[in-house]
Specification:
Elements (H helix, E strand, L loop, with lengths): L2 H13 L4 E2 H8 L3 H16 L4 E3 L3 E3 L6 E8 L5 E5 L7 E3 L12 E9 L5 E10 L4 E8 L4 E5 L8 E3 L11 E9 L8 E10 L3 H11 L8 H9 L12 E2 L6 E4 L8 E7 L5 E8 L10 H9 L3 E3 L2 E3 L4 H7 L7 E11 L5 E12 L2 E4 H9 L3 H6 L4 H20 L10 E5 L5 E6 L4 H24 L5 E3 L5 H11 L14 H11 L5 H11 L4 E3 L23 H14 L5 H4 L3 H31 L6 E10 L2 E6 L5 E5 L8 E4 L4 E4 L5 E3 L3 E10 L4 E6 L31 H8 L14
Helix pairs in contact: 4-17, 10-11, 12-14, 13-14
Length: about 750
Amino acid sequence: MTNHDKELLEKLRKLLTNPMPMRAILQKLGAPEPARSGLRKRIRDLTQDGSIVRLKGATYGLPNKMNLVTGAVQGHPDGFGWVIPDDVDEADVFLSPRAFGEAMSGDRVVARVEGRRSDGKREGRVIQILERAHHTIPGVFERSRSAGYVVPFDSRITHDILIEPGQHGDAASGQAVMVEITEYPSATRQPVGKIVKVIGDADDPAVEVAVIAAKLKLRTDFPHAVVHEAKSHRAPSPKDYAGRLDLRDKPIVTIDGETAKDFDDAVDVERIEGGGYRLGVHIADVSHYVREDSALDKEAFRRGTSVYFPGSVIPMLPFELSNDLCSLNPKVDRLTLSCIMTFSKNGDMLDAQIHESVIRSVERMTYTAVAGILKGDDKALLSRYSGLLANFRLMEELAEILRRRRLENGAIDFDLPEPQIMLDITGRPENIVLAERNVAHRLIEEFMLSANKAVAGTFLKRKYPAIYRVHDNPDPEKVKAFGEFAKAFGIHVKAGESLSSARMGAIIEEVRGKPEEKLITRILLRSMKQARYSDENIGHFGLAFVHYTHFTSPIRRYPDLIVHRLLKDLVNDKRRESHWKPILPEIAASTSKTERTAEEAEREAVKLRQTQYMADKIGEVYDGMISGVTSFGFFVEFIDPPVEGLVRVATLTDDYYIFDERGHALNGDRTRKRFRLGDMVKVKVESVSIERRRVDLSLVDGGARGRSTGGRGHAPGGRPPGGRSGGARNEKKRDSRRASAPARGKLKRKKR
């Protein structure tokens, strides 16, 4: 929205004390006759984004004054759904299956709030569609005698799409296809479409990844102009080193996963006078190759981030750059942007300098090798890297000091392991284990955190526009709900207590090693908001940093590339405030959105592999922990393998079970039996749907072990865990998840 449109909207908010026709609005605005045509169009444009609403009778009003909500529909496979408001501070609106109207999951709509359910949550119905989310949809084609239909891969889209005779092209029954919607659903008819592309056999691993990408509208192929531009760049030569700090004589190393191919960061540490440390974090100078407004730059902005699947990646930049010219490969000259920090022996950052630089990495190290060196019991490893042994020990020493200081200052240390999917040579999952983080992962994490913090501080000190990585304080209502839940475990949260990050960290330490550790950690995570990008610095709650940004991964994150350009302005004393201020808010909003899409794609890819792994295990029995509770059942995460399935409430036939949302439990009405988050249960695999990414379970031996409730629960309602405000993204966790497959590429551990 332009500044002019914002000004107009503010005027309309004051003006529209009641719904008015367009003529009355124009008169009250005092618009002269020649200007009315353009103003009329601008007002109608505001109805497209839901800022104002056009009602029956051609009157216009403010949605919040008429019990109307604008937002996106989020469907559920069972037919109901929610409207997720544009205003993040508004509560979601529940939609019954009949309340969708002509809307499909993903559409931006206007919904009328028509009342509240017994649990107090808002309920309504869609009255207007502002924007369709889907013009094409991937799915499986099924042919019948007279016509056919496509079953969408996205289970939240509950309509099958009718394919009329002659509209199926060359598609064969059972193939994955892309269907173009020609008629959207109505109250009396399902959507209609035509097949525009055959993706391939639905069970082909390559096709499965393509389907996820298509469903979420990820860009998989680079345009010709982008590829041509990437291939036109050459390796750096001495003329490119002019004016750069020459660090090629330093013992700089990269430390990444075994199968990594894109190395965007390198480090070195040295002892300085007085017992302190000098830490160098050297980041690939991607901005040297990806120029502003170039074809490469525009494509990188559209993608926003690389997307990591088990065994593959959709890169933000072509491999000519990401795996070659911009990658800090060993024993070759590479252009970098270096953040060189000085620390006291106690870990206080005394100084930080940013330089355009050139480095030559002396070794390409792996986390496993560095951890083995520091452990010190592998003589062959110690002999091979004897020249770097002292350097790695100094790195470990500094990293431990920095970590200790960070935790003392209130940072939250969530450390829940993520599933690591092992693929066979055909691309199929052959095993799933929990990924482990060693001392080398933590070492690199601390150095990247320090560099990102130092760079953010540089922008503030120089009073220059920037993009920050921010993390809001937790939602007070969720904190209150956590406090009520935690009482059962002897954890006391005072009424109205805001729960600082230090307090959250203390709670985690209090339950460390106890049976309820995983449970309490999960609930705390769900009380937190998601980190995002912003041009305004509000600090980072989870890290307990007053300022923070993303600087260390420009190969795979567009905000980091922008941060590099901003830093170069300062390094070269070419301030461009008038250039950056208008565009940074849009960049921050867009890259936050593409990050969420990437996260959704990565989660779905992992879920796909998990259901494929379980497909031949029907009838097998597993021990597990209840990992989520909803009105329609509860999710169980197996102890081994780390896979999640669903026990539907319809299968619990010994009683009527009532959903207690605040208590994260299903309570038996008569038996007082309780199934609560964190309970251990024994379950059997009943069915597996790879298409729906679902593992259905049944209870074995009667249910949860030793749990009962003394009272009635609340009425059913609420969205499953993992919605908009549930399950905040701990940045370290997402990078661990990104590294969950040996063939996936580098370990993405720096995602704070």
